[in-house]
């Protein structure tokens, strides 16, 4: 163990990296908690099982095999290489070198797997880059994929390559250093052993390169960690809680609004006692909450959690019948708008906050002037988008991390209808038909049983001679 | 043994009459607004009643006491109107002590099954596709003695509120299997099924501006599936046909888009009309196909 200035420096860098991330994470937590309360307790086993299948097991990714395979490489690479990060942390803090080598053959298996995955990750990232930038994948286009989301997607890919290059620099330099000194380097290095020829024969240069690779890898990881809260790549963390807290009820089951239930019950039965409204801890009345959602704080906290879990893959939008037929609605845009809006209204945890993003997010300059109307509804999401939804649940089914754009769409429709009476006129006609005739069409209720008139059934009976 | 065919008039039992006699039926058949008012879908209601009469299950309908479940209001965001409808219907159903509800409409099915319990309406709710599947499994329906579908092409269009909303994918397919037809799957089927375009109250409004109507997109997919490749298309046009395709215009020939939802029925039928394929492609509900295979419509 050679405890030195380098270890002190590492301690400072690590504390700063994780500290900064904790500070950002706190802000995001506060953003999520501005959402309406929703009790998600219970069903822990069912939720854990779902998390295991959908988040850890990538179950829903496999609806599309090619990207699922590429994603699996990067995902498994991320998990396995993180074991090495533990080693780097220990080595960095205590001045050890390749601390996990006591694992013996297991260490060789670990480093060998790491190297192979690292090489595969580079190949997968190249394929991802090509898919995103050179081929035409429809879901990587769309008006919501503005400059920043596109740049963000590429930054992630570049960083992943840089991290892998740093890893191989460290390993190959270390390997060559040991070879030249006639020593054995514990571990297996199937990829780096092919690269040693590219490295100089100078012992000092190799030692420096090994350190450069080591520092670049860990500093890169810490920087990347702090980039996550500004990026769609935050899904690598948020996917897990999001799947854990996803809905367990059938997809067709929409929430009932409890406050309306009390009103309707009181209307139908005058003796019905409406429960006293909840109050603040000091007994004062809570600010009234509107029916449905006008802004991000009218959505449930789980909807805001989802906004931070979205990796903007566009699988939702690519299966949306409205979007497929050229309507404005894009479920991905609703989720991206939610995150943009919550960060505009509340905490902006962004360190890497491109100024163009804020300007771009305000779609409608006319409404930008109107501070009152600059809310999620209208400021970001237009009624035209909301009314195009067929509530078919294709987006919900498609999302690999169980985001439910439909919930937000319905909450905003509720606001439009119940608070603003702003439904399209044809729907208002449908509503009054239901009220007056008990059917969405203008038929007389007295004709409801006419279908049974003159009804016959053909029956075959055996004829006995 | 010789058989004779006879038409027996059916008087559909009303729940109010049964209750007055102190009887309770095994199932309540929830007809739904489309089933009661839509001219095309009334034929599905009548076909389903023929099946119920044929197998001799004890059933009743609410008749004029039935009212919209509130589904279109709820999907459009009018929660207040939905709950008014829901609580009125729940009071009616509970008043008669109904335990088991069968309906041919996936929207009624979803609403009563999933959204009524929280408002005090706990029923066993069965979609007619599952109900027909049970009748077939029990041997009560054999799909013999009527129209033959052998060699004809049928593709099933998944209703969102049956499929993704409630995970019912196999029951309608098992029902169709009994027909001995050539069942073809569209590329977007089951969990990946494409909506007909009518859900979420779209049935009652014009679509937002776009490039295409959703039902046209879906109908094109269904037609491409039924047409198959060029050779298959030739078959359908009557050249070297392996299937007994009857002349254009005959309502007994051609391929079938099978549906299990009144709104899908309207959307797909409009799509087929738009594509001018009414002469060789028809849209039928599961109940109609079974009733005609069983010889109940003759």
From TrEMBL, chain A:
<keyword id="KW-0004">4Fe-4S</keyword>
<dbReference type="InterPro" id="IPR017900">
    <property type="entry name" value="4Fe4S_Fe_S_CS"/>
</dbReference>
<dbReference type="Pfam" id="PF13187">
    <property type="entry name" value="Fer4_9"/>
</dbReference>
<dbReference type="InterPro" id="IPR051460">
    <property type="entry name" value="HdrC_iron-sulfur_subunit"/>
</dbReference>
<feature type="transmembrane region" description="Helical">
    <location>
        <begin position="68"/>
        <end position="86"/>
    </location>
</feature>
<feature type="domain" description="4Fe-4S ferredoxin-type">
    <location>
        <begin position="379"/>
        <end position="409"/>
    </location>
</feature>
<feature type="transmembrane region" description="Helical">
    <location>
        <begin position="106"/>
        <end position="130"/>
    </location>
</feature>
<dbReference type="InterPro" id="IPR009051">
    <property type="entry name" value="Helical_ferredxn"/>
</dbReference>
<keyword id="KW-1133">Transmembrane helix</keyword>
<feature type="domain" description="4Fe-4S ferredoxin-type">
    <location>
        <begin position="301"/>
        <end position="331"/>
    </location>
</feature>
<keyword id="KW-0411">Iron-sulfur</keyword>
<dbReference type="InterPro" id="IPR036197">
    <property type="entry name" value="NarG-like_sf"/>
</dbReference>
<keyword id="KW-0560">Oxidoreductase</keyword>
<protein>
    <submittedName>
        <fullName>(Fe-S)-binding protein</fullName>
    </submittedName>
</protein>
<feature type="transmembrane region" description="Helical">
    <location>
        <begin position="151"/>
        <end position="170"/>
    </location>
</feature>
<dbReference type="InterPro" id="IPR017896">
    <property type="entry name" value="4Fe4S_Fe-S-bd"/>
</dbReference>
<keyword id="KW-0479">Metal-binding</keyword>
<feature type="transmembrane region" description="Helical">
    <location>
        <begin position="6"/>
        <end position="23"/>
    </location>
</feature>
<keyword id="KW-0472">Membrane</keyword>
<keyword id="KW-0812">Transmembrane</keyword>
<keyword id="KW-0408">Iron</keyword>
UniProtKB/TrEMBL annotation, chain B:
<keyword id="KW-0408">Iron</keyword>
<feature type="domain" description="Cysteine-rich">
    <location>
        <begin position="154"/>
        <end position="224"/>
    </location>
</feature>
<keyword id="KW-0560">Oxidoreductase</keyword>
<dbReference type="InterPro" id="IPR004017">
    <property type="entry name" value="Cys_rich_dom"/>
</dbReference>
<protein>
    <submittedName>
        <fullName>(Fe-S)-binding protein</fullName>
    </submittedName>
</protein>
<keyword id="KW-0411">Iron-sulfur</keyword>
<feature type="domain" description="Cysteine-rich">
    <location>
        <begin position="28"/>
        <end position="113"/>
    </location>
</feature>
<keyword id="KW-0004">4Fe-4S</keyword>
<keyword id="KW-0479">Metal-binding</keyword>
<dbReference type="InterPro" id="IPR051460">
    <property type="entry name" value="HdrC_iron-sulfur_subunit"/>
</dbReference>
<dbReference type="Pfam" id="PF02754">
    <property type="entry name" value="CCG"/>
</dbReference>
